[in-house]
């Protein structure tokens, strides 16, 4: 049977600088889906690449004293090398300076020009050089660029324009009718809001005398193509010229992953360019959130740019892949810190995953010399584990459709917990004491090994090296990317008689002393060490940003509310944190009726140690202001999804 094509893309990154953790984030996210879809039997095409034209790149080349082509030839390699280190399984890597790309850009420009979709006019207005965007007087904020706040230059020149404005109405309709076209929902609403204003035509040229580094327009070689018009076409130029794109089977893309910074260019510029060219729109554009570092924007001048190569050297590839996608729900902003990373390594990876594999292999060695025994009869005690496996596999598949990475991992970890509980409950060490018990022991250890195999396949898209190590220790020769999801649909695929062997710990714990050393070494840029800053702040009764960031404030949506019996003040709430639900007790019963609270988004202190109030556990605290007897809940003057960080 012919495999179903599945096309997934990342943005193509500017080669004005070296890649950082933000670039790695989108690329790893796309890689995980690509790997999962391959396991599920799809014909996957996963594309990434580099954006090599335009002002930013020309400027960066100038600063390094190189010709632009030499600069991009040198720098794009850094991205390729990093993706190899991260085990990114892209099928192609496109560079916008390649002929195959330039040809298609010129083909599309010519077609649109001949069809009257592109025209020339004199333009007078404002231009933001770093963003390479034109703005009208009314767009400016305090005379500066509304996007980045930087200074704008006045421009008066003749340019070519794409008739983008005429596409507004059908685009609004398309977005309204296709819920998945722009995700998450908050971003979709943002674009619908943007489209309430009239849509301007798009300037798609730059005079050569101002910017020489670009693709010359096919109908006027005094101009080069605007870098965004050029770059967006990479998603289709990779499939060949216009006629070939339709036949390739890969267009439209199933998912186009981007950061929230480039949502307008994708959901408005790109969508209208495709429509005018006569090509269908991608099925989904997903704009994920923004990573900060210890609460600050990553920036060269602050010196806090997280260099992925250093992280890989220190912690290993799979740990970083896991952390980035587990820590923050996809779509929300996240904060990177070494402390949180070490926390995840110790709790999720060493304690949980490492533990299940280790104790299973250890007991197989001890009681069966490493030979996987034949399971005897399956008993009542085994059924919950087997049922949990089926439930998790099914739910994980649904969650992939929503790109809910962090929920997928939480789900897989539920199965891991079930595996550890199974071993605790069946107590193999007691079974080993009698001959009768030994029959049951064979089944228990067989099932534990099978659980490890299921987990290896489920985590393979996120942690491919770990999955292979697990397979090897379980005595399975076939590398995981040559296996398929089919093998976990039915319990009991692993063959009795396989020779298992315990290797080194896959995730050793980072002990407190080592962790302290790592944390001490990560000073932020030229800032004084954290300990000094803290002493200075304490003197004045102030706290540092690091102190503040220790409080994990999150947006939380109230799902249920009821008064606590026998209490005048307490209301019991169930709140949604995006990835989990919590029970929280709040002393607001004199100010609010429970019914008033349902559906509200509040601010939750999410890392407060749970306490018991009137015999009920409260897993966090919601923020409210008060004046005498008046209590008013803190909140937001707009809609926000649950689970986002409040800073
Ligand atoms: O915009 N957090 O390229 P770019 C999360 N060439 N993601 C981040 C991030 C951060 N702090 N920083 C960067 C361009 N990213 C254009 C794209 S596509 C036709 C042209 C990621 O090098 C995120 O995916 O500035 C963001 O959208 C992308 O890098 C921007 O990369």
Could you list some keywords that capture this structure?
Isoleucyl-tRNA Synthetase, Domain 1, 647 residues, six-stranded parallel β-sheet, five-stranded antiparallel β-sheet, single chain, binds ligand ME8, Rossmann fold
Structural notes for this entry:
With 647 residues, the protein is α/β, with parallel strands linked by helices. It has three domains: 5-288, Rossmann fold; 293-298 and 328-550, Isoleucyl-tRNA Synthetase, Domain 1, CATH 1.10.730.10; 551-646, OB fold (Dihydrolipoamide Acetyltransferase, E2P), CATH 2.40.50.140. The protein is 42% helix and 19% strand. The protein has 22 helices and 25 strands. The chain has a six-stranded parallel sheet with strand order 3-2-1-12-13-7, sandwiched between helices. The longest helix has 31 residues, at 338-368. The protein is globular and about 90 Å long. It starts with a strand and ends in a 14-residue tail after the last strand. 39% of the residues are buried. Residues 11-14, 22-23, 25-26, 51, 231-232, 234, 258-259, 261-262, 290-291, 298 line the site of ligand ME8.
**Total strand count, please?**
25
Q: Count of helices? A: 22
Taken as a percent bin, the fraction of beta residues is: 15-25%
Major sheet description: 6 strands, parallel
| Largest sheet, spatial ordering of strands | 3-2-1-12-13-7
How far the N terminus sits from the C terminus, by CA atoms, comes to 52 Å
Mean pLDDT over the residues: 91
Report helical residue fraction: 40-55%
* Spans where pLDDT lies below 50 across 5 or more residues: 523-533
Oligomer: single chain
Corresponding CATH superfamily of the largest domain: HUPs
Q: Structural class of the helices, strands and pairings?
A: alpha/beta
Number of domains: 3
CATH-defined fold name of the largest domain? Rossmann fold
Whole-angstrom Rg:
28 Å
Q: Which architecture of the largest domain does the CATH hierarchy give at level 2? A: 3-Layer(aba) Sandwich
Q: What is the global morphology?
A: globular
Bound molecules: ligand ME8
């Amino acid at each position: 049977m012919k495999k179903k094509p599945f096309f997934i893309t990342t943005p193509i990154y500017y080669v004005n600088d070296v890649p950082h953790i933000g670039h790695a984030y989108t690329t790893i996210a796309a890689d995980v889906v690509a790997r999962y879809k391959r396991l599920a039997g799809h014909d996957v095409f996963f594309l990434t690449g580099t954006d090599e034209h335009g002002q930013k790149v020309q400027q960066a080349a100038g600063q390094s004293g190189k010709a632009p082509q030499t600069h991009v030839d040198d720098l794009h390699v850094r991205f390729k090398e990093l993706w190899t280190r991260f085990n990114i399984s892209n099928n192609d890597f496109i560079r916008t300076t390649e002929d195959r790309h330039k040809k298609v850009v010129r083909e599309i420009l010519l077609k649109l020009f001949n069809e009257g979709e592109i025209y020339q006019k004199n333009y007078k207005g404002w231009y933001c050089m770093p963003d390479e965007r034109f703005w009208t007087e009314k767009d400016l904020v305090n005379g500066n660029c509304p996007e980045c706040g930087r200074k704008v230059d006045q421009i008066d020149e003749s340019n070519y324009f794409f008739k983008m404005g005429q596409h507004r109405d059908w685009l609004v309709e398309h977005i309204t009718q296709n819920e998945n076209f722009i995700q998450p929902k908050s971003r979709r609403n943002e674009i619908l809001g943007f489209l309430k204003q009239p849509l301007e035509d798009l300037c798609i040229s730059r005079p050569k005398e101002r910017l020489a580094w670009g693709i010359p327009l096919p109908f006027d070689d005094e101009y080069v193509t605007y870098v965004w018009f050029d770059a967006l076409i990479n998603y289709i130029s990779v499939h060949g010229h216009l006629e070939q794109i339709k036949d390739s089977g890969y267009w439209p893309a199933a998912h186009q992953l981007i950061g929230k910074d480039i949502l307008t260019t994708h959901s408005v510029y790109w969508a209208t360019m495709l429509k005018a060219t006569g090509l269908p729109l991608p099925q989904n554009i997903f704009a994920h959130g923004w990573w900060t570092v210890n609460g600050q924007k990553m920036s060269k001048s602050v010196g806090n740019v997280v260099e992925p190569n250093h992280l890989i050297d220190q912690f290993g590839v799979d740990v970083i892949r896991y952390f980035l996608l587990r820590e923050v729900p996809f779509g929300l902003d996240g904060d990177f810190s070494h402390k949180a990373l070490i926390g995840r390594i110790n709790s999720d990876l060493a304690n949980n995953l490492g533990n299940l594999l280790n104790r299973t292999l250890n007991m197989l060695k001890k009681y069966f010399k490493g030979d996987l025994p034949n399971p005897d009869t399956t008993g009542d005690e085994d059924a919950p584990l087997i049922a949990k496996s089926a439930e998790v596999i099914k739910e994980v598949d649904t969650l992939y459709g929503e790109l809910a990475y962090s929920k997928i991992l939480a789900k897989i970890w539920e199965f891991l917990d079930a595996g550890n509980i199974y071993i605790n409950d069946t107590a193999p060490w007691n079974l080993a004491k009698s001959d009768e018990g030994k029959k049951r022991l064979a089944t228990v250890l067989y099932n534990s090994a099978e659980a490890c195999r299921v987990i290896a396949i489920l985590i393979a898209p996120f942690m491919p090296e770990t999955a292979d190590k697990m397979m090897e220790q379980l005595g399975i020769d076939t590398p995981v990317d040559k296996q398929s999801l089919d093998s976990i649909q039915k319990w009991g695929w692993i063959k009795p008689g396989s020779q298992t062997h315990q290797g080194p710990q896959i995730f050793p714990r980072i002990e407190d002393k080592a962790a302290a050393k790592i944390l001490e070494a990560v000073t932020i840029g030229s800032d004084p060490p954290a300990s000094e800053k803290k002493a200075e702040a304490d003197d004045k009764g102030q706290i540092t940003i690091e102190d503040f960031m220790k409080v994990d404030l999150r947006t939380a949506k109230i799902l249920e509310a009821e008064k606590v019996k026998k209490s005048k003040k307490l209301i019991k709430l169930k709140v949604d944190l995006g990835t989990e639900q919590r029970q929280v007790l709040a002393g607001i019963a004199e100010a609010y009726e429970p019914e008033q609270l349902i559906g509200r988004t509040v601010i939750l202190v999410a890392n407060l140690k749970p306490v018991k109030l009137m015999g009920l556990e409260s897993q966090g605290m919601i923020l409210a202001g008060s004046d005498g007897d008046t209590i008013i809940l803190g909140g937001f003057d707009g809609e926000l999804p649950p689970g986002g960080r409040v800073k």
